[in-house]
């Protein structure tokens, strides 16, 4: 009885030792992958930061209005943020590859899903950034055109354009991520419809006088103003 | 666009039939039927009267007119003119009209005329604006300095109303003079003449495929001749008669002129940064003449648009101007219309800060030029108020003062340009 117990214990101990012996090299490989991954991720971060600085990415980001947003929420500059993001994505990728080497059942599926999600995440970020850039450019263009054409409420025109482009970019970004696709489409339709209806009501009811004055000035007194402003700048 | 594709086969054939000429007069048109007949007759009269022995050709480059402009040019025959003025042609005066590719743009037209001039080996060329009401003498005044005195570029001076050409007097002339150091009164010349040598130089530039080459060619011509150290002169032509037309689009005018001036500074830094003071250029006749007739001008609207611009464009101006300059403009915008003045020093500083912002491309460069328009209206308002009852000498003295401010502040532009400010 005692002998049998000892045999079982020895066998179990040997099994554990064998398992540890089998696991240890994998753990070592994983640690090596994690360390090498950190070095590669750090090099990537450093290289990307240098490229973005050379390309004046912060200025582009400022132009898009992203810098002001980042400042408001106490985040670092766009260059720094993007470099750090790439560092973490790269390093987490290496950590997950390392974990997959351990051969833990069920983890591999999650890792595959993570890598499958990455391109969509980048696409969504790309859409959002260029959406912000486009929103900033077109809203400023509208503001300048409205001011120079002496149109009423230039800021309203400008911010409407900005809002529409941002809402559109965010909805496309979320759709790219696969988050609540239907909800986003419905929300976008509601926001867009409400905005248009609101503008129509505001201009039709709230801005009756403004609209009348504008239309009068535009059509009834056009001849007189043309005569007065005939000065040739060149 | 390669040079051979600018000239259509038919046009090329017509040019080959002409052979070589001594003088070429180019007219670029686009829906100018109301003025073109009279203009072409004046050009013909000028050539026959003052250059009867020279071989000459009139080249019309049209942007695709729909009002029969080209037909009118072809129909204006030489016999009509001989009938009226009894002028005798000693040589055949060729007249060719062509439609240039790329849509209506003065730069595309100029490039077509330059290509024709080079092909015909013209030693002197003149460009006449399609909406000008000219006298035959203008041809002589423009072309004689080229043919007789070997000048390469002859820009015009006119007898103008004191309130005409405000952008030239308040920005283009002072800034061009301060930076490029030549006192060219009309740096954006609608009518001008140049030598065959300069025509070949212009044609060899790479600017024609760019927006500046298409729409800002007139300004580029002056700057390019100064930077290339060609011989410059200006010639008094006569009264610049105001043609009835739709109100001028200020932003479009600024893009063509101010935009081109800003743009030119990039490539010519070595040239403009080295000069410290301006020099007059040879002038035939008076360098300016002003008419002071009463003219209905809506000054209040200029002021309103300045105030509105400063207030509404706050975020845009913050990206372009330094805080003290913006604060001064905002302070000026709070003043009631009768007391409002935009001083020379503040205006010159504002323009230079816009120039530096354009160089650094702090926002879209086209947006920078557009954002200057409402501020210019403030300066135009001040000019209109200060010179309401002024005689020509007083107006000229104010323009001279503004020019000196631009020259005085030039070092600050250099500092901003080099990033030291």
At CATH level 2, the architecture of the largest domain in chain A is: Orthogonal Bundle
Report the major sheet of chain A.
Answer: none
Overall geometry of chain B comes to globular
CATH architecture of the largest domain in chain B: Alpha-Beta Complex
Strand pairing plus helix content of chain B: what structural class? alpha/beta
CATH homology superfamily name of the largest domain in chain B: Spore Coat Polysaccharide Biosynthesis Protein SpsA, Chain A
List segments of chain B where confidence is low: pLDDT < 50 over at least 5 consecutive residues: none
Compute the average pLDDT of chain B: 90
Properties at a glance:
heterodimer; A: mainly alpha; Helix Hairpins; 9 helices; B: alpha/beta; Spore Coat Polysaccharide Biosynthesis Protein SpsA, Chain A; 55% helix
Structure overview:
The complex is a heterodimer of chains A (234) and B (421). Chain A has 234 residues and is mainly alpha-helical. In chain A, 87% of the residues lie in helices and 0% in strands. Chain A folds into two domains: 27-104, no CATH class; 119-220, Helix Hairpins. Chain A has helices spanning 2-54, 57-64, 66-72, 78-101, 107-148, 154-177, 181-206, 208-220, 222-228. In chain A, helix 5 (107-148) packs antiparallel against helix 6 (154-177). Chain A is elongated, with a radius of gyration of 30 Å. Chain B has 421 residues and is of the alpha/beta class. Chain B folds into two domains: 3-291, Spore Coat Polysaccharide Biosynthesis Protein SpsA, Chain A; 299-417, no CATH class. Helix content of chain B is 55%, strand content 13%. Chain B has helices at 3-6, 9-18, 33-50, 69-75, 78-85, 106-119, 137-147, 166-180, 196-203, 211-215, 217-227, 250-267, 269-274, 299-312, 314-320, 323-333, 344-360, 365-386, 392-408, 410-417, and strands at 23-29, 56-62, 93-99, 124-128, 153-161, 192-195, 232-239, 282-284, 289-291. In chain B, helix 11 runs parallel beside helix 12 (250-267), helix 17 runs antiparallel to helix 18 (365-386) and helix 17 runs parallel beside helix 20. The longest helix of chain B has 22 residues, at 365-386. The mean pLDDT of chain B is 90. At the A-B interface, helix 5 and helix 9 of A face helix 8, helix 12, helix 14 and helix 18 of B.
